[in-house]
Amino acid sequence: MENRNVATFIKVVEMNNFTRAAESLGYSQAAVTAQIKQLEHELGAPLFDRIGKRINLTRAGEAFLPYAFRLLKAEDEAIACIREQGDLSGTLRIGTTSSLSIGALPQAAIDFIKEHPNVNIVIQVSDFTKDLREKLIAGTMDLVWAMTEPPNPQNFQRILEKDVPIVFVAHPDHPLAGKKVSLRKILAEQLIVADREVGYTYYLNKFANDIGVQLEPVLEIGSVSAIINILEGGYGVSYLPYFVVQQAIEDGNLALIDVSCPDPELKSNIICHKGKWIDPVIKNFIEFINERI
To answer: Are 158 and 136 in contact (CB under 8 A)?
Structure first.
């Protein structure tokens, strides 16, 4: 059912005349007649009695009239709602991994909300990117931000890609803090790493194997925040994404170690389902992230 035909029906009722309704709408009388006939066909009942030059609503027409007004009102409200998106409102649901959840994303979310107070952001954390992608397919999540391989183009689209530098860090009082050392030397330290299935730990293990060294961390733990707490307490060294430790470095709680090590060239991807509409909230959030991170 086309709302254009519904609007024509209401205009005919208001004018009580097909010709005057056509003139008011800027249509030909034949076009108005055709629209009413199409509407009657869709409803399965005549809407007007045509007696000579006079027209009157049938009982079906009288019953349909209040619904016709509701249909047009709903259309106006829908258009107004979309236009009001210029003010940005609604809930943005983002899935991410633990590394990103303690790094750039939370602060970016807060800064975005400060600029757009009518937006709510829900962040769900999982280190199983398969679970996050399944939520995209189910429609329970708008975006996923994770350090993953480019998504399957059949189901997902990549909206933004960012380089992710991976660095060695330790407490500022650590003997190697701020110094340039070899990979072999750093691997002999009290190394604390994230789960080996995590991309950057996987590459560290590969780099160690390439120089004939077995990766033997003193502690392997799935919580990046726990690793940072241990380092800030003065124990060990670790290999982590820079955005995770950036604030701690700027606050003077951690320090970089310059290690001669290959670049894993990791990237973070923000993806969504291929069929997802990039609405104004998502579009503005992506632009916000791209400018600040």
So the answer is: no
Are residues 136 and 269 located together in one domain of the fold?
A: yes
Number of domains in the chain: 3
Closest C-alpha among 5, 56, 58, 66 to residue 33: 5
In tens, the pLDDT along 143-185 reads: 998 876 655 667 788 888 888 899 999 999 999 999 999 999 9
**Identity at 209, one-letter amino acid code:** N
**Both 188 and 260 in a single domain?**
yes
Cα–Cα dist 261/71, whole Å:
65
Angle at 284 between CA 244 and CA 128, to 5 degrees: 40
Give the model confidence (pLDDT) of 236-282 as tens digits.
999 999 988 988 999 999 999 999 999 888 888 898 888 888 888 89
Q: 56 is in which domain, residue-wise?
A: 1-65
Q: Tell me if the pTM is above 0.85.
A: no
Q: Cβ of 279: how many Cβ atoms within 10 Å?
A: 15
In single-letter form, the type of residue at position 182 comes to: S
Q: What are phi and psi of 145, to 5 degrees?
A: -120, 115
CATH number, domain of 194, equals 3.40.190.290
Domain assignment of residue 154, yes or no: yes
How is residue 283 written in tokens?
């579009």
The domain that contains 8 carries what CATH number?
1.10.10.10
